[in-house]
Write the structure tokens for this entry.
Amino acid sequence: MNAWNHTNESNFMLMGLTDSKEIQLVLSVLFLFIYMATVLGNIGMMLIIRLDVQLHTPMYFFLIQLSFLDLSYSTVITPKTLENLLTSRKSISFMDCFIQLYLFGLLAVTECFLLSSMAYDRYVAICNPLHYPVIMSTRRCHALITVSYVIGAIDASVTVFHISTLNFCKSKEIHHFFCDAFPILALSCSDTHDAELSIFILAGFTVVLSLIPLSSSYVSILSTVLKINSSSGKHKAFSTCASHLLGVTVFYGTVIFTYMKPIKSYSLGKDQVASVFYTIVIPMLNPLIYSLRNKEVKSAVIRLVKKGEDSQNFK
């Protein structure tokens, strides 16, 4: 079988989700709506937090970072997907494909550790409230974000390095709507055992290393909340964690389902649906989850609207 390497060929072909023109049109409208909602929701969340002084706390600092990550990795995936659906131009250069693979890996892994940092923040706020300002200092918050990005960069770099050194078969058709690791590996004529093993180990490392502090934080939170005598106190404590816990469950559920398994278990239908969910849908849902269930964000919106009305009346 003839083999070729990405250095002497020009592009891959992203085959997308379906060949039906009618379904492509429906998906393009749906994805465009979702992407617009993602952009508006995440930018809106960042602006609200930036403009309202009362939200300048570690919890909302992390929430700004989450909105930025969601907006970024949705932008890495969705515009190219829309182009393929609307124009039927399925071609993507090797360079662009590996850049997309790298950026998505970087941002997704970073989000895992950001969610872990947010759980730690809630643990300190509920279990050690008197020392919260000291423990969750600006320096520590920035350190947690920096570590998250560094781990994400290392993870993505190793994955892209292993895949980019492979030779590929005659087929250049990636049976997916973006450049993801498993669909690209499926095209290789080389022995992909080492690449598969490294991806599986890195995925396991990311999930385990981020879930340990996350789950430990919530076990401690649950233990502390159960000791609270008043029902109102318990409700308040749970309400501060409910949004984050919901976001964590949805994100980790789809990521574990997709990546924590060997390439032979890859299913074109099921894994594509899961991929649509965590690459396109979840970035739109997070602003809704954290705003609709958060009284402080709602209050901030009301304050900003009143402030705008007062400034208009003053003029």
